[in-house]
Amino acid sequence: MLHMGRVEVESTLLFETPEQIFARVFRTLRPRTPLPEIRVEFRRFANANSFARLEDHCLQVRIADLLADAPAPVLESLAHILLCKLFRRPVPKIYAYRYRLYLSRKDVRRTIDALRLERGRKASDQPRGEHYNLLEIFEELNLRYFHGLMARPSLAWSAQPSRTMLGRYDPAHNAIILSRLLDSPRVPRLVVAYVLYHEMLHLRFPVQHRNGRRRVHTAEFKEAERQFEGLEEVRRYLKSAL
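RE: above sequence
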């Protein structure tokens, strides 16, 4: 009976529209709240990000178009994730795991990488800032920590200063972008070098996907990061000044 029940539920999912899936999940999470108007759109995003907003008794959901052909159980999991976040509830592990597992599929990862390359914003290769030249710092780090063997990616300062993201590596465009906040005489050169080194490690140790989990900072990554000379000094500065 349990097995047949599961099959029946999965069969029902196959015939539901995205709006019906979100309506059902909404009723599950808010059984006493009147069902709002639900609008689900698939948008041309450069990644797998999706959003949900409830306003004026209308639930607006925007989903990355790469998920337009995702299996119904994956959309159901996404509905639970988005609505739980909207209502500030913990996301049930089964739905979070199912969604991560789908995004970890090799074919889906290839699609995401292709979309990032096609639609993502490519940083201009301008490593020279007002105070620091990322190219010079990269070459120094490359010789000291990578025996000069790391191929240089595109290096650039961000268009706007950011405190929340001091650096990022964009694998689709093979680019490292540092926050323009660091391009200042008030920021020690050692701090700039560390942030750049951290992003260089993402080239050396790519993201791993295992059992539906995305591991960005692996044990090897962390061990290599500890080799940076002056790491504790940098951490104290970042904790107190930024």
